[in-house]
Amino acid sequence: MRRPVVVTALAVALLTPAALVAAPAQAATRPGKITAVSSAPGPHPGEVTVRWKQTGGHTTSFRIETGLTTFRKGSAVLPDHGRRTRYFTVAASRRSVTLTAKQVASAGAAPGTGNHLFFRLTAVNTKGPGTATRAFPYLQSVAPKPVTPEAGTPLRVASFNVRTARGANPPWLGRVDAVAATILSRSPGVAILQELSPGRSDGGSGNPTGGPRQSQTLVDALAARGAGRYQLVRKYWYIGPAEPTGTQGARILYDTTRYELLSDCPDRSRYQTTVSTSCSMEMPVLPEDDLGKRRSAAWALLQDRSTGKRFMVVSVHLDERKSADAATQERYQALRTKQVRAVLARVAVENPDDAPVVLGGDLNSWQAARGGDPAHDALVTAGFYDSADAVTQVNTRWTTYNAFARTVPKSPSGWGARLDVIATKGLRGAVRFENVLTRTQSNRPSDHDMVVADLLLP
User: Fold this and answer.
1) 272's torsion region: left (phi>0), alpha (psi -120 to 50) or beta?
2) Identical fold at 34-142 and 153-457?
3) Neighbours of 124 (CB within 10 A)
4) Which end of the chain has fewer CB atoms within 10 angstroms, the N or the C?
5) Is the pLDDT confidence value at 126 over 70?
6) CA distances for 407 relative to 84, 185, 254, 288, 368, angstroms
7) 414-433 per-position pLDDT tens digit
8) Of 292 and 43, which is predicted with more confidence?
9) Stated pTM of the model
10) What CATH number belongs to 34-142?
11) Where along the chain do its domains lie?
């Protein structure tokens, strides 16, 4: 009887050719270090160009991840990805790439959105099992190249939330001359104002009979500086002071020597001496809100006295509420969006000849706001161009909300929260946009900066 042959593992190893033995899998080698990244707008409108340097190799491609908000993988304070994340793959041999206008638009930063991109560059190696990556450690940001506006008649517009007199500290009467000086420092043809109430200028409650109105004191302060040419489209109440309502501070100031008011905007109705709903509308509120939350928007059709060109001006101040609760914040953002759409629908009715529209105001939202920036997105979707995407941009990396701080701090993301907007429809592009900011100032005229856009009327 033959005994069975027992072959040990060692024997198999000795008897098997080396070529038939599987070698241990080699993991993908980590790519070489990216040592520098830079970016710039252009070269063409809507485009951005990214350049970088790398030491070593082991790279099969590069990946650019973009977002509209800041992000960092594995951070304790930032999300892994920004809002509206997009990925773009670049060949390993490249050390620069231009994202096309279509690609930038897909990432949410088309010209006219006023948006910029945050992005992170990562080297990728897929040679071997798995994927090895090495990211440049610092988040970058860039804005696309803006559109150059077509030739036209110059129009300088300001938007300024001047801060209410009601219970304000510092008080309005101590700031009104500085507000007038700020407006005159840029000499706009039109100043779109918010929180300029027809109520008492001393900040008290009740009817201002016998005392000056906040709205009138600004006109008086301008006149005292030799600028009596500036007048308000409306100075008095949109809704009677005895009726429940929110802020009526949306106002329009214009240079009467340059522009003529074409809209019929009487300050007095047939039966009231200081109340008229003319050239105004009440914006929507939440279903559970009382009428004390209802805000008014304002508009006026103006005509350039030298050229006869007409344009519509709109002033809005959207709901101010914020919440740390995501669901509640989403409701507030949805309300602001609804307010924008309601105003645009009314303006379309008041502007049957489709004159160019210039809308200014405090949107109480911004690109990096919690829950996104849907009110601003609604403007862009409706065909409006954010004039912050101007050929020349001044102080756009600083917030327009200074909170009366003596020194305005730098934004940690490199871009300031821009609550205050000048957006246009019927004219595309802007020559210049300025956030009128003095970084250190002891006596600020308002808790918001004035913003100014130089436009060209077609």
Assistant:
1) beta
2) no
3) 20
4) N
5) yes
6) 33, 21, 31, 39, 22
7) 899 999 999 999 999 999 99
8) 43
9) 0.91
10) 2.60.40.10
11) 34-142, 153-457
